[in-house]
UniProtKB/TrEMBL annotation:
Residues passing through the membrane, by range: 6-29, 65-88, 94-123, 160-181
One family name in Pfam for this protein: CCB3_YggT
This protein's GO CC annotations: membrane
Protein's recorded name: YggT family protein
Keywords recorded for this protein, A-Z: Membrane, Transmembrane, Transmembrane helix
Amino acid sequence: MIYLLNAFSLLLEIAFDLLATLFVLRLLAEAGRADFRNPVSQFVYRYTNPVLAPVRRVLPNWRRINLAALLVCYLVMLVKRLVLFALLGTMPHVAGLLVLALADLLDFVLVFYLVLVFGWSLLSMFQVSPYHPVMGLVEAIVDPLLRPLRGKLVVGMLDFSPAVVMIILLLARILIAAPLFDWGEHLARGF
């Protein structure tokens, strides 16, 4: 029975993470000023706008940050944690649940950026058209992270700025997200 529960929880996590990916893409594409004419951007906009339009009436953007998309991502992570705890038959303390959802969101965004930076750096080694829709969107999302280091870590013909950004993202997971998870677990148990 435990194996079936583990398989079901894995499928639930994948479903919630796919939903969160859509809203994180919307959040980061708007923050990076991705080209709206891009077909991938239009897909993301089309499927997130029915949820975000009513929330944006109450919670407008702050600078280039779509606070409505951020709130929806947080709520997706909160519901995911609540469902996973319900599968285990336990109910955590509310404060622990809120902190765990925040830790989930932070870790998710860090891993998302890590995958995008790695994929972008890998694709940049091949002759991929810069006009490809996916490449354009990834470039718009990754560029704000790479811009401060671009051109400063070049050795020969190699730019090591993506490697440094990936190391910083991994360190952020270890030094920020992991302690937040520990604190959330501690609060969820009620100690």
